Each structure stands twice: as C-alpha cells, then as structure tokens.
Amino acid sequence: MSGRLRLAAMSITSRIRLFNRVIGLVFLLMVVVMTLSLAYSRQVLVNSVTRNMETVIKNAQVGRDLASLLAESNLLFNTFYGRNDFLKTQGDQLLGMGEKIVALSTDPELNSSVRHLVEHLRSILSCAAVLNNLLQEKNSLEQAIFSELDMLDEIIAEQTINQIFAGQDTSFTEQLSVQILDYRYSLLDIGKKFAELATGHGVPEAQKKGLRTRLDDLVLNLQMIAVSNRETSEHGSHLLAQVTKYRDLVDRYQKTMEDFTNEIQAFNSARATSLSLLRDMDAEIASSTRVTAQNITEFFLGTGASLLVIALLGMAGVIVATSWFLRSTINEPMEMVKKTLTAFSQGDLTARIRMHRSDEWSLIEKMLNTMAEELLASRHDLQQSEEKYREIFNTPSDAILIHDAQTGEIIDVNQAMLEMFGYSYEEALAQNIGTLSVNEPPYTSEDAIEKITRTIEHGPQRFDWRSRRKNGELFWSEVGLKYREFGGRRYVVAVVRDITERKQAEQLLAAEREQLAVTLRSIGDGVITTDTHGTIVFLNRVAEQLTGWSNDEARGRPVSEVFNIISEKTGEPCENPIQRVLETGKIIGLANHTTLIARDGTRRSIADSGAPIRDSESRIIGVVLVFRDVTNEQRMEEELLKVKKLESVGILAAGIAHDFNNILAAILGNIDLAARLVSGEEKATRLLSEARKATSRAARLTQQLLTFAKGGDPVKETATLPQLIREAADFVLHGSQVYCEYDIPDDLWPVSVDVGQISQVIQNIIINARHAMPEGGRIEVRCANVEDVGAATLLSIHRGKFVQITIKDHGVGIPREIIDKIFDPYYTTKQEGSGLGLAICHSIITKHDGYIQVHSEPGQGTTFHVYLPASEQVDLERGDTLDITPATTGARIMVMDDEEMLRSLAASQLAHLGHEAILVRDGEEAVQRYQELLDAGTPVDLIIMDLTIPGGMGGREAVRRILDINPKARVIVASGYSNDPVLANCREYGFIASVAKPFDLEEMQAVISAVL
C-alpha cells in the first residue's frame, strides 16, 4: 500500500503521535545542529583569540626586551671609558639581547629596524673599544713624555751647575729649563683638554682645533730643543717623536669620537623607529581584535538567523541563550579590551583591564596590563633621555635653532639663542627668519629660505649673516646649516655664532690692507728702500721692472749694485744718492740726463728723488728712492719737435695751395681754350697737351707737398677709391710673394679725400699685412657702401653715409695684450721702423672725419676696417678729348671769384660753351646783381661761387642770402682744396653740387649739364 494511503488510514491520534514524533525528530535535529554549531563557534573563537594573544604576548616581550636593551645601552655609552672588560661583557650581553629580540619579533619591519639598531650598537661598541685603547696608549705616551722631560731637566740642571763652576754664561741653559717647565704646563693643559674631549660627544669644533693648535705649537717649540744643544738633542728628539705620536693619537681619537657620535645618533634614530613600529603594531592588534569581534558577531548572527528559519519560533530560546552566551563570553570582555587599547593608543598607559575572570580572558588581562607597565617604564626612560638631550642642547655657547625644512618655521632653540637674541623661549618659537634678520637684501627671509634649500640639496652651508636682536640691535653672525631627518620629518639645524668683534677686526684689517694696496698700485714710479748702510730692504714692482732685479734677489745687496746710474752726457757714474740723503737729512733729486743701467744692460733715462725715512723720534732709519722712466718722454719731445717742423711745412703748403691752385686754374683753362682754337694744327695741339700735363703735374705736386707734411690738414678732392686702392697696394707688394684679392663694387660712392694721405694709409696697412706673412699669402681687400654706421657697428660714429674699406690678412695676428697699443705713437714690435705707421694712419683717417678699427685673433690674421664719409660732390671724370659741342640754348651763369684772371677765364669758357657769363667779385656784389636781374625779369640760371673770398663775403654767406631771395636758386660751390666741411656736405649749406679747382673746360660743361 502506498504511503499516502497508509497516512490516510491512520487515526488522528496516530497522526498526532507521528507529528509529535516528527516534531521531536526535527527538534532533536535542531539540537544536534545547534550543538555542533556551538562547538564549531567555540573552536573558531578560541583559535582567533589564541592567535591574537600570542601576538600580543610576543610584542609585549619584544617591547620589554627592547626597553631593557635601550636603557642598558644608554648606561653603557656613558660608563665604558677605561673599562674594556666591562665593555666587552656588557656589549656581548646587549648584542645577544638584540638578537633575541630579532628572533622573537614576527613583524618584518620591526625585525629590520631592530637589526639596524643591533648593527649600530655593534659599531658603537667597536668605536668604544678603539677609544679605550687610544686612552691607554695616551696614558703610556704621557708617562714616556714626562719621563723624557725629567731626564732633560736633569741634563739641563747638570749643565747649569757645570757652567756655574766654569764661570760660563748660564742664561741659555736657564732659558731651556724655563722652556721645559712651560712644556710641562702645556702638556698638563693639553691633557686637561684631551680629558674634556674624551668625555664629551658634542665638543665644539673650535675646541678641537684649539687642542690641535696647542699640540702643533708644542711640536714646533720642541724642535728647538732637538737642535739647540748637543747634550739635549737626543732626548729632545725622543721627546719630539713622543709628542708627535701624541698629536697623531689626538687626531685618531677625534676621528673615532666623531664616528662614535655619529653612530650614537644613528642608534637613537633606529631606536625611535623601533619604538614607533612597536606602537604601530599595538594599534594593529587593537584593530585586529575589533575586526575579530565583529566577524565572530556576524558569524553567530548568521547562524542564529539560519536556525530561526529552520526552527521558527522554537529556536528563539536557543538564539537568546546563544546571544547571552556570546555577550557574556566574548562581547563584554572584548569591549573592555577595546576600551583599554584605545586608551593606550591615545597615550594613557595608566589604564588597566579588570575582568575578574578565570578563563582565557584572564591571561589576556595579565599580558595587556604587563605590556602597559613596560611601555610606561620605557616612556619614563625616554623622558630622561630627552632631559639629557636638552641639557646637551643647551650646553654650547653658540645659538642653535631647529627649523622645519619645508616652511622654515622655528621648532626648537637652545638657551644660547635666547641669550643672544634676547627672547624668551615662547617668544623665540613665535619668531620667523625675517624678524631675526635685518630683512634687507641679501639678508631677507627669502634669502634664508634659499640657503635652507641649498643645504637640503647640496649639503652643509656656512655663511655670514646680518642678524637682529629683540631690541632692534643689528649684529654680524656666522651661520652653519646642516640638514637632518628624524622620525620621518625633515629639519635644518642652524648654529649661529656672534662674530661682531671679528667682523670689526676684519673691517679694520681690510681697510688697512686696501689703503696699502691702493697706495702701492697708485705709485707708478719705482720705489727702493734701504737701511742706513745703503743695503736694500724693499723694491716695488715698477722698480723690479726698471732695474731687472726681483725684490727677493735685491734684498740685502748694496744699492749701488742694483741702482746703477750714470750721466747721460759723460757716461761717468753718478754720486750715490743714498749717501747724500744720509749726510744732508733732506730730500734730494738727481741731476737731469741721468741713465739707469738695468741688470740686463738696458739703459733708461730716469728722473728720481731720495728722502730719509724717520722713526717716531725723527731719527733716520733708512732712505727711500722714488724714480721713473722718462725715456719715452724725452723721445716724445724730440719727435714732437719733428712733428712741429712738419706741421709748419703743412701750414706753409696750405697757405699757398689756394693761390697756387687759382694760378693753375687760369693756366689750365687758357690751355683748354687755346687747344680748341688751334684744334686743326697738330703741332700746336701737341704742345698745348704737354703744357696741360705739366700743369696737372704741378697740381698733384701741391697735393704731395701737403701729404709730405704729416701734421698738415688733408687737401681733399672728390675721388673714387678703386683705382687709388689698387695702385697703392700693388706698389707696396711689387716683387713680394704676397698678392691682393679685390672685391670692390662698381657703384661704390665717391669720397672727398686727400689722395696722397689715403694712399699712405692703404700702403701702411698693406705693409703690416705683408710683414705678418713672411712666407707669402693672400690679402683680401673689400669695399662697401654703408649707411648709418653708428647704428650698425660703431656706437660712437655719427649717422650718415660711409664707404667701408676692409683689409684682411692671414698672418700671425696681433696678441691681445698689445692690440690696444698699435695706434700709439712710437709703439712697434719690429726691430726697424719708427712705430709711427699706424699712428699716422689713425691721424689721417681722423682728420678725414673717418674711423679705423682693428680685429685680430692670434694665428688667424688681422682685419682693418676703414670708414670714410661718402661725398655729395659731383663726380667728374676727366676725358682725353675736348670735343664738346656748345649748347644750342645758352644759360645765364653768374661766376663769383676774387681773382680777375679766373673771372676772365670763366667768361671765355662760358662763351665758348654758348652761355652768357655774369662776373662778380664777391658775395655782396653777387647778391646785389642777382636781385637786380631777378627784378628785371632776366634771372640767373646758375651761380658758380668761390668758397673763400679774402676780405669779402664768401660763398657760404652769399648762398644763404640768395636762397632767402629765391629758395629755388641753383648754386655750385668751387674751391682750390676741400678741407672745409662745406664741400664735404654741400647740400646742408644750400649748394646743389661742388667742384674742386682747378677744373678744365670739359669739367665745367659736365657740371653745368649735371645741374641744369
């Protein structure tokens, strides 16, 4: 029968019984499930709590051992001196304790930190052992040194007694005895300073250097003992060797002490890191405990929810019981632990757990309370260490400020800072770098921050600083900056020392030195000082150059040997000036025409004087000779006389040039007219042509005369440079292995120059270039038109148009040290020559209102740049023929000239050309006739004016008045020479063109055609 039919056949009682049985089975199943769940939950709880408790126990043990290690280490660091056995035993114990801590700890970071701590401890123990050994060696050396001193005392005492009995002078041995006593005191003082060095980790650098200085001084003094007396030399040498060893031992001790101090600092840093990691681990345990409690709570809540779904209301009691069990067994104890650990994390190590339980929580209670007591003890040790640090921090006499490396904020200061600046501790922390400084460049807060940044990036810095006290007083300080990192933060430690007195002393010393240096530099004369016996004491640099003797070589020699003077006229030796000064006691001077013979035989004309040197009581203690080289001055006077003679020739030539050119103009003009009249007669034409050539030669001779007189002004004429440059250069280079390469444009502007003088300039520069290339080579000659030279190349040149001439060689070049002297008169580097070549070039170009520059690189050649002002004159080329057809329409042309023959010549020339000539003598007549003709309706078409009219109005004034009458008037200026600025810039004065005398018929027609 099927189950459904069987259930249907059952009675109600049986069904209830079956249901009850099913309910019972379900409840039994629930009980089994709950039992198994509780058993499983208990096991999870026990495992979690046990795991955390083991970690807590280990960390507590690590903290306790670490605190013990740190406390005993600090004790050992301060008590190891002279106790090697104690150092060895205690050090091994501490290292073993450190290894035990490493083995016990389970945290990798803590293990690493403790290992670093142990390594630094091992280094510290090693340094401490070395320090103890050095102390033992120092004691042995001191015993040996004092033993040697005792023996020296005995020897010196014995010598003194023997000398007394022998009636000899005992002052030297008594002095040695006193020195030995001084050495004893010095050694005692050095031993005292060494003791201070041996027991202090932070001894100032100045004190270390002072100890070293005392030892160096003692070694130097002992060297005298070793060589001063034969009887004491052996013991003196032994003593010197022992003291030298003592000095070396001090150096090693200072180096080891520095290593010891650095290792202690590193040890303290590792200690701080370890304690920080231990605190972090405790915080992690507290956090882990909270997470565990939360996980267990969620687990049981989930289990209860599942059982509630299965058992419905029947599991309510089980859930309540389970909840009570969890709360009483886990939650309440866990909350107590959490509260206590929170108090620990906030720094309250006095908090304790009170559970009054006998289960596993009692073990946790005991471990946490023990850990709190050990941490409290460690914090007490840290506070004591902080107090020791503060005591050491406040010991130095220099001010110490600790700044935040990023902001520059003051974090801590020592007592010396408060005393130096006058602030209280709270006030000092509230200050900034700006208020502690003068706060003016370069001593502002920004400058200080920059130095802090430089310290961080490049290492320790040391510099002088202008500081300010609280009362506003300014003072000089020396600041040393050093960058450090502690506990993850970056700091800059500033050590400030008041150096006001030192600065004042330095300023006084610097002022005295500067005054002496300025005095010596400003003396351009030679200075020799002697004693009263005529022995040289000092030579200055100029005296060294003139005599050929160095100061060291001349010192101690008789003055007559170094200062060898003779008469220029007779060649006989001059009287010793030293003896004359000593005899007269007055200042004396040498006679004129005195020659100084240098050590190498060089002779120079000099002017000098001698004076006595007196002490504070006016007694003569020496003589000073002051002398100077006047060779160049005498040479200059001689050459100046030559130049004046040349200038007189130039003045004479300039005086006759105007008249002579007027005569030549009349001759040349009449020759041209005669040539036209006899153009059909070959013989007469040939003779007139020869006469014309002779006349032109006479005109050139006038120009050469002016050129020969170098001091004369240039006699200018409008010229083009290409032919002039080529002829001058080729003439100089004829027969040599040097050639010129020309680059001259066809449209080069004309210039108003003295052809002879400019040829001389070109020749002088080419000659220098040829000398610079003795093996031959190429000279580059380039010309160019340049506008606005002042803006382009030469700041001092006025604006305008210039023609640039560039001459470049490829020779040896000019050394940089003499390039500024090449234009100086009489300066030359050649064995022959007067040294006037480039000086004359500079003079000629300057008188042409031009400029000359030079650029040279040794080994690469030299380049000269010559700038000549471009001319506004009409460039007239002289033709070979005179076949000019007269104009079909004549012009009315006024000619103004003071020479009757030139006026007549002009009338004939103009008539021949088909023009009407109006002749006037001077400017007043020209203005009057111009006005009359203009009023009559027959105005003048063109005016040709002579620039200079002796005793009358010249062209400059006349053109101005004519332009006032008619601004459109056309006027040409003419002159026998063009050194007047009117000809170089004729348009600025109202003329439309200029022409130089003498000019021929063809030139007259060309200029008239150009302007009409």
TrEMBL record:
<keyword id="KW-1133">Transmembrane helix</keyword>
<keyword id="KW-0812">Transmembrane</keyword>
<dbReference type="InterPro" id="IPR004358">
    <property type="entry name" value="Sig_transdc_His_kin-like_C"/>
</dbReference>
<keyword id="KW-0808">Transferase</keyword>
<dbReference type="InterPro" id="IPR000014">
    <property type="entry name" value="PAS"/>
</dbReference>
<dbReference type="GO" id="GO:0000155">
    <property type="term" value="F:phosphorelay sensor kinase activity"/>
</dbReference>
<dbReference type="InterPro" id="IPR001789">
    <property type="entry name" value="Sig_transdc_resp-reg_receiver"/>
</dbReference>
<dbReference type="InterPro" id="IPR003594">
    <property type="entry name" value="HATPase_dom"/>
</dbReference>
<dbReference type="Pfam" id="PF00072">
    <property type="entry name" value="Response_reg"/>
</dbReference>
<dbReference type="Pfam" id="PF02518">
    <property type="entry name" value="HATPase_c"/>
</dbReference>
<feature type="coiled-coil region">
    <location>
        <begin position="243"/>
        <end position="270"/>
    </location>
</feature>
<feature type="domain" description="Response regulatory">
    <location>
        <begin position="891"/>
        <end position="1008"/>
    </location>
</feature>
<feature type="domain" description="Histidine kinase/HSP90-like ATPase">
    <location>
        <begin position="753"/>
        <end position="872"/>
    </location>
</feature>
<feature type="domain" description="HAMP">
    <location>
        <begin position="328"/>
        <end position="380"/>
    </location>
</feature>
<keyword id="KW-0597">Phosphoprotein</keyword>
<dbReference type="InterPro" id="IPR036890">
    <property type="entry name" value="HATPase_C_sf"/>
</dbReference>
<dbReference type="Pfam" id="PF13426">
    <property type="entry name" value="PAS_9"/>
</dbReference>
<dbReference type="InterPro" id="IPR003661">
    <property type="entry name" value="HisK_dim/P_dom"/>
</dbReference>
<feature type="domain" description="Signal transduction histidine kinase dimerisation/phosphoacceptor">
    <location>
        <begin position="648"/>
        <end position="714"/>
    </location>
</feature>
<feature type="domain" description="PAS">
    <location>
        <begin position="514"/>
        <end position="583"/>
    </location>
</feature>
<dbReference type="InterPro" id="IPR013656">
    <property type="entry name" value="PAS_4"/>
</dbReference>
<dbReference type="GO" id="GO:0016020">
    <property type="term" value="C:membrane"/>
</dbReference>
<dbReference type="Pfam" id="PF08448">
    <property type="entry name" value="PAS_4"/>
</dbReference>
<keyword id="KW-0472">Membrane</keyword>
<feature type="domain" description="PAS">
    <location>
        <begin position="387"/>
        <end position="454"/>
    </location>
</feature>
<feature type="transmembrane region" description="Helical">
    <location>
        <begin position="299"/>
        <end position="326"/>
    </location>
</feature>
<keyword id="KW-0175">Coiled coil</keyword>
<dbReference type="InterPro" id="IPR001610">
    <property type="entry name" value="PAC"/>
</dbReference>
<dbReference type="InterPro" id="IPR011006">
    <property type="entry name" value="CheY-like_superfamily"/>
</dbReference>
<protein>
    <recommendedName>
        <fullName>histidine kinase</fullName>
        <ecNumber>2.7.13.3</ecNumber>
    </recommendedName>
</protein>
<dbReference type="InterPro" id="IPR003660">
    <property type="entry name" value="HAMP_dom"/>
</dbReference>
<keyword id="KW-0418">Kinase</keyword>
<dbReference type="InterPro" id="IPR035965">
    <property type="entry name" value="PAS-like_dom_sf"/>
</dbReference>
<dbReference type="Pfam" id="PF00512">
    <property type="entry name" value="HisKA"/>
</dbReference>
<dbReference type="InterPro" id="IPR036097">
    <property type="entry name" value="HisK_dim/P_sf"/>
</dbReference>
